[in-house]
Amino acid sequence: MDARYNPNDIEAKWQATWAEQRADRTPERDLADSAEKRPKFYALSMFPYPSGNIHMGHVRNYTITDAIARVKRMQGYDVLHPMGWDAFGLPAENAAIERGVHPAAWTEQNIAQMQAQFKKLGLSYDWDREVATCRPDYYRWTQWLFLQFFEAGLAYQKEATVNWDPVDQTVLANEQVDAEGRSWRSGALVERRQLRQWFLKITDYAEQLLTDLDQLTGWPERVKTMQANWIGKSTGAYLEFPIVGNEALAGEKIAVFTTRPDTVYGVTYVVLAPEHPLTARVTTADRAAAVASFVEEIGRESEIERTAEDKPKRGIPTGGMALNPFTGEEIPIWIADYVLYEYGTGAVMGVPTHDRRDFQFARQNDLPMRTVIVPEGTAIAADETPEDAYTEAGVLVNSGEFDGLPSGEAKEKIVAYAEAQGYGKARIQYRLRDWLISRQRYWGVPIPVVHCPDCGPVPVPADQLPVTLPENVEFSGRGPSPLAKLTDWVNVPCPNCGTPAKRETDTMDTFIDSSWYYLRYPDANNETAPFDAAKVNDWAPVDQYVGGIEHAILHLLYSRFFTKVLRDRGLVNFDEPFKQLLTQGMVQATAYKNTQTGKYVAPADVDFSDPEAPKDPATGDRLQAVYEKMSKSKYNGVEPASVLEKYGADTARMFILFKAPPEKDLEWDDADVEGQFRFLNRVWRLVTTYLEIAQGEAAADLVDAKAEKDLRRAIHTAIKEISEDLNGDYQLNTAVSELMKLSNALGDYATKTSPVYREGITTLILLLAPFAPHLAEELWQNLGQSGSVHRAPWPALDEAALVADELTIVIQIKGKTRGTIQVPAGCDRAALEQLATESEVAQKYIAGETVKKVIVVPNKLVNFVV
Fold first, then answer.
1. Closest Cα partner for 340 from 258, 271, 288, 293?
2. Could you please report the per-residue DSSP string of 254-309?
3. What are 218's strand-pairing partners?
4. What is the dihedral angle through the alpha carbons of 77, 123, 720, 807, rounded to the nearest 10 degrees?
5. 725 near 660, Cβ under 8 Å?
6. What is d(CA 761, CA 687) in angstroms, rounded to the nearest whole number?
7. What is the pLDDT of residues 316-350, one digit of tens each?
8. Given CB 3.0 to 4.6 Å as the disulfide criterion, which of 100, 159, 480, 558 pairs with 484?
């Protein structure tokens, strides 16, 4: 055995061996229930976009899940631990434009590169189950699943707003629009246009998605709250305001949703979204030019800009009028930037006295105000113009027959009155909107629909899937989607009637691909179906899912939606896709920021002539050193390859797992990386020294019975603590700390030939295996053990070994610790007090003093008050 720990040689050796042996393949399971059937554990990390290089965020995410998977294998579970690639998306199409390389070639090259990097980390993936969402053998089934939604009436088309580049004549993704609202390529001011697009009806599942959050007991409360807020359930009323003074619109009404029907007598105007279909129709001739100009101006703004809290709200009158049916008064119809057509009904009622936004808007535009709710017992006159909006509950005034009612009771009675009079009805509304899945791009899953002039939208028959992406494509970044330009691909006969028709040229949102990938892994090589239901129902739901908090809403919500739809289609038998969710924190490192310019300076360029005050060499400004998320733009990234080359994968894994609890942000520190490398070297020397002694000694040394008992207690304390740390919340950092304690106990023990010492060495290697798999495997083999350490049973806890013959008791004088004493285990209070009183530690401080009180905490301390 080599006297030096050489991680690069050891890791390369075992990675090759594991690959050759297919050591991490998933066991085939008996799908019939039986007493002999082993428990299953499905461990999954959110799969990455294949950018070509892994970063430290990847290392952290995938190392956490790998440690969990390895522990579960050793604990007797059948483990499914797969990996794949979320491989469609805009970057590949951009690469095609900029570099002249086909997206498929660019993506496959990146996949190969990242797979090799993952293997160097010792991640125990079953590569036989690898999926890539851009390959036809995967997206064939994405298209098949889309047709399931289509058949269920959950996929439909409607007009929706898109970002339009007027120079390049193309649709832009939100990421392609800069902070000033300009196209990333042409620099043109981006316009907002209506385009017919595909949606999935996620709103049909809004209530289920909300109420079933209660089932997710293994999810962080923070994530569940974010989803609940995104779904945004509101209970209120749907009310209608008839349009008046326009014969062409006789009988037409403006519909609004409100959670405050108790304020309806205070409505003094209504506001339409500028893009609302009624806007142009209610606008009077004298207001037409101003309204058209305003609509065009607002059309260039993003949704975020229009709804920003700190931005003044802008609006103009249309000249049109509506009737408040409750008061009988005519009120003006305005349009304003803060009302979005996609939200609710695309219109709101203005109640300036009881809504702060409406109050500011009304004051700014000199619109009338009427107080209709006052605090109970108020002395304020109801007809006074208020200084601010009153938004709390109270008592109704100026509200006709409802005057004097508490606002809670008034809500119910006003809604009942509205229903009786035909003014509206009670309604539950959700903030959640249907999922727009259309993308006017090439590198995505083609939507399997043909548009026939006679039959309408016709699904491509399942036996004709996949609708593959054509390869003879020109990428310019200009004009319509590359697919729309390929007439040979677009023009096809209708699958129903044979009439000349056209393919759908939109591709799907990439979130579609990641909304079902966890269902493919249990049966990844199935060529006749997306998955075998029996296999998926056996393995799923995922037992432990690990990924970033940035996916708390969209990806996780869409995956839950998919699971529920497929359950209702009879394809799976469970309600939720992921039992437990761990959202790991970010990896941060020191960045040097010039607070005057807002720019970052690379560490190699920083002027450290005064170590306490680093400076920008270009300006002389003092730099602020801050921990921020690793990023190329902040010059604070650490390349995983450089760490692996210097220290090895096991050291990188140990640092990542030890530095911080998994859910907290991790601050990179080279000194701590070095510390973990020293620890693994210490473990190497412990085992190396033990083997040299064990092979060279003819007879065992004399054994100190007490020391041996203490060592065995340390061994089983480590087993107990690490087993608890690796269950449920996965406190991997404290588990590594326990490994260090056990290593120290073994290092301090003198009798290396003792059987208990061998038990300790063996246990240390077994407990180390999930964290540093290569080193553990090498040491396991050097011990002469058969088979892989990763298939060996997890160490069993002997509770009896935890029982101590003696306890350490703290002696305090007036609350201050003055020393410790050893006492027999099991002492009662009286015995503890006597032993403490007679001890040298106590006598040193209480001799000659009057002891007023003795406080005894059994098994912990004795405190003397003198």
1. 271
2. EEEEES-GGGGGG--EEEE-TT-HHHHHH--GGGHHHHHHHHHHHHTS-HHHHH-T
3. 580
4. 170
5. no
6. 7
7. 999 999 999 999 999 999 999 999 988 889 999 99
8. 480
Task: Characterise 187 by phi-psi region: left (phi > 0), alpha (psi -120 to 50), beta (else).
Answer: left
Contacts of 820 (CB under 8 A, 6+ apart): 808, 809, 810, 811, 841
- State the Cα–Cα distance between residues 786 and 783, nearest whole angstrom: 9
**If you ran DSSP here, which 8-state letter would residue 107 be given?**
H
**Which of 10, 8, 121 lies closest to 649 in space, CA to CA?**
121
Which residues, 6 or more positions from 572, have their beta carbon under 8 angstroms from its beta carbon?
519, 533, 536, 537, 540, 563, 566
Q: Is the peptide bond before 541 cis (omega within 30 degrees of 0)?
A: yes
Sequence-ordered list of residues with C-beta below 8 angstroms from that of 440, at least 6 positions apart, any chain: 162, 170, 171, 195, 480, 481, 484, 505, 506
Q: Which residues pair with 858 in a beta bridge?
A: none
- In whole angstroms, give the CA distance from residue 271 to residue 615: 53
End-to-end, the C-alpha distance of the chain in Å comes to 61
DSSP H helices in 635-770:
640-647, 649-658, 670-696, 705-725, 732-748, 755-768
229-264, pLDDT tens digit by residue? 999 999 999 999 999 999 999 999 999 999 999 999
Neighbour tally for 863: CB within 10 Å:
18
Which pLDDT score, from 0 to 100, does residue 585 have?
A: 92
Assess contact for 320 and 245: CB atoms under 8 A.
Answer: yes
Give the whole-angstrom CA distance, residue 144 versus residue 359.
51
* Rounded Cα–Cα distance for residues 561 and 543 (Å): 18
702-738 pLDDT, tens per residue? 677 888 999 999 999 999 999 999 998 899 999 999 9
3-state SS string for 570-637: CCCCCCCCEEEEEEECCEEEEEEECCCCCCEECHHHCECCCCCCCECCCCCCECEEEEEECCHHHCCC
Tell me how far apart the alpha carbons of residues 450 and 460 are, in angstroms, rounded to a whole number. 7
- Condensed to tens digits (0 to 9), the pLDDT of residues 776-830 reads 999 999 999 999 999 999 999 999 898 887 889 999 999 999 999 999 888 899 9
The answer to whether 636 touches 628, Cβ cutoff 8 Å, is yes
DSSP-based three-state secondary structure for 46: coil
User: Residue 643: what are its φ and ψ, rounded to 5°?
Assistant: -70, -40
DSSP state of 503: E
Could you give the percent of the chain with pLDDT greater than 90? 79
Closest among 802, 781, 804, 782 to 792, alpha carbons compared: 781
In the three-class reduction of DSSP (H, G, I as helix; E, B as strand; rest coil), residue 372 is classed as coil
Q: What is the Cα–Cα distance from 457 to 468, expressed in whole angstroms?
A: 19
- Given CA atoms 579, 580, 586, 587 in this order, what sign does their dihedral have? negative
* CB contact at 8 A, 594 and 616: yes
How far apart CA 63 and CA 654 sit, in angstroms, is: 9
Cβ-based neighbour number of residue 310 at 10 Å: 4
| 806 backbone φψ class: left, alpha, beta (φ>0; ψ -120 to 50) | beta
What is the residue-wise DSSP string for 398-429? SSGGGTT-BHHHHHHHHHHHHHHHTSEEEEEE
CB-CB neighbours of 407 under 10 Å: 23
CA–CA dist 295, 12 (Å, integer): 64
> Residue type for 498, please?
G
Structure tokens at 342: 């996609």
Three-state secondary-structure class, residue 166: coil
Categorise residue 249: left if φ over 0, alpha if ψ from -120 to 50, beta otherwise.
Answer: alpha
Residue 749 CB coordination number (10 Å):
18
48 SS3 class? coil
Provide the CA 456 distance to its chain's centre, in angstroms.
39
In the chain, pLDDT over 70 holds for what percent of residues?
98
